[in-house]
């Protein structure tokens, strides 16, 4: 074990003693900025540094005085769930001038602040970089003007800067998601879901204008997430004659018995001559061409408001901790960096390279080189755009390729929000590829009973926003019914299978793969998409449904914390679902600001419970007189939720009282979050394309025959990539007794929750550290 400790890069070796960190939010506000500030403050204090709030962005840095105040552990309590930025943000003209930056440098030197953590957009980060480049010159000027002495200049000779991108537009290159984007999507989708019901009642067309002056990300992803009829974004201006094309599509959809039309417009939408396309222009167009009852809704600043989503809280907390680590490791020779997310991994990128690339996007758009602009936006944007194009247009049957293959789709296991979005995407992409798509009701139980029927393009309209499983889902495994299932495959001539579900779906695919030796009917391409709130499937970091569930947990925890704050000195024990997998409890605890989390993966004993009670007793002496403890349902068979609640009540007598709350099946319900809709839509499209390829490869002598390992796969997200992995190869990675993968990436986030709750712990930072170059031209992947 000692040897393993040596190879790990542990952050206990990084000390912040004697260092001072200033944290500021600048430019437009974004939900999740407070979570980032909280993480920077607590991580900074944890490693022994002094941390200062710089209120009102750069304006506060220039003005100094009370605008720069030392932060304490308690001063960031209760800000995790608050939208906007608590320390204020302002656009500052003065900082753009040399004199303004000189004043700011003076204010920082007075307090010995030589590390800055800037949370803002590309403008704010560019300003910070310029400030760093001028730093030594500014210090010389201050010495010449006798505002500081030589010693002060010597002690503060280096300024280190780390940026975090807070912007709801997701318009910064180099990062998949910026802080605030997911929450803004939540606001948009809440509005779209509400509008859909009224639009359906009156057979109306709605034109929705969303933010994004230079970037169409919000418009594009919300169009994907609600199945909009048409979307207009700056990066993909429509060709001449688009007006006619759009009206034709709207009227075709109406003829298909669709009672409403939704058109989403980014505020910066343009046509191919760089002329703006406004929401009112679209309304006039629809009314004059089609005579449809049309309304315009401009969402405006609603998108910036409200509480941050679970995703943004986790993203911001991870980024905040990473930013402090980057500052501790920075030297005079390292360029200013920005901490960001690539796939599911925190990375550090050179700040100015990202800014340059972001500016190049605008340049490409000004030069009408839109393909280049999309490429520079990054792979996340490109994937969204390609998926939207695949799903947006229903070609006439005569235009479709005729593959003569039949593909069946079914749901297995417990319902998970986002399953329906995945089915809709699979059906439509399948039809576009020329296949006949079949829907199976009630999982493998319905399969062996013959509940299989063809499903058409229009049958899945409006499915994206529906929670649960419309096809119906059961936990029945196929092993006992192999003969009947094989018979149904023959009757309906099924050539490929797409199974969407959780751990049971994984077991089902394994059983079918193993039955190939005795039943040739199972020698067909089979693919599984992970969909379970527990996120306990091997071969993938994330599952469809887990994000929606996390949001339900976090929302409830926010309310419970509010109740506890009102009552004072109260601790809540909250039980989450997840079977033996602690993902929901652990990551939910990080997003909700829990004091302790009990999970099966991290065994605990009575001494741990005792020290947790003592920890809370200490906390009650401060100004934060409430506690939040999350317990995974199967974390320990003897230390039940009741037992822990009674223990806390007894041991905390006279200091705090205790209540328990079992969240139960509310974690499985509700409309899917934007993330789950989008994730389900994208991976289902990718899976169908894989199935098409495998069908072509395995079609010989008039029939499909696929019996190799790589024709029964699970499509999962692994760190930065989406990968098709043979299920038989995932067997060794799986603990079947407890229905969890043997190794789980999120356990690396577990210590973060402890650090932010003031526990001394070990944190492995081997993953972070190296500054990576920004990749510009990506070779086309074979897959």
Automatic annotation (TrEMBL):
Species whose genome carries this gene: Hucho hucho (huchen)
CC per GO annotation: 6-phosphofructokinase complex; membrane
Keyword Transit peptide: no
Region annotation (N-terminal catalytic PFK domain 1) ranges: 1-393
Reactions the enzyme catalyzes: beta-D-fructose 6-phosphate + ATP = beta-D-fructose 1,6-bisphosphate + ADP + H(+)
Cofactor(s) needed by this chain: Mg(2+)
Record bears the keyword NAD: no
Top-level taxonomy: Eukaryota, Metazoa, Chordata, Craniata, Vertebrata
Record-stated family: Belongs to the phosphofructokinase type A (PFKA) family. ATP-dependent PFK group I subfamily. Eukaryotic two domain clade "E" sub-subfamily. Belongs to the phosphofructokinase type A (PFKA) family. ATP-dependent PFK group I subfamily. Eukaryotic two domain clade 'E' sub-subfamily.
Quaternary structure and partners: Homo- and heterotetramers.
Function according to Swiss-Prot or TrEMBL: Catalyzes the phosphorylation of D-fructose 6-phosphate to fructose 1,6-bisphosphate by ATP, the first committing step of glycolysis.
Region (C-terminal regulatory PFK domain 2): 406-783
Active site: 169 (proton acceptor)
One annotated GO molecular function: metal ion binding
Binding locations of ATP: 28, 91-92, 121-124
Location (main, coarse): cytoplasm
UniProt cross-references to PANTHER family, sorted A to Z: ATP-DEPENDENT 6-PHOSPHOFRUCTOKINASE (PTHR13697:SF53), PHOSPHOFRUCTOKINASE (PTHR13697)
Protein name: ATP-dependent 6-phosphofructokinase
EC number: 2.7.1.11
Entry-linked InterPro entries: 6-Pfructokinase_euk, ATP_PFK, PFK_vert-type, Phosphofructokinase_CS, Phosphofructokinase_dom, PKF_sf
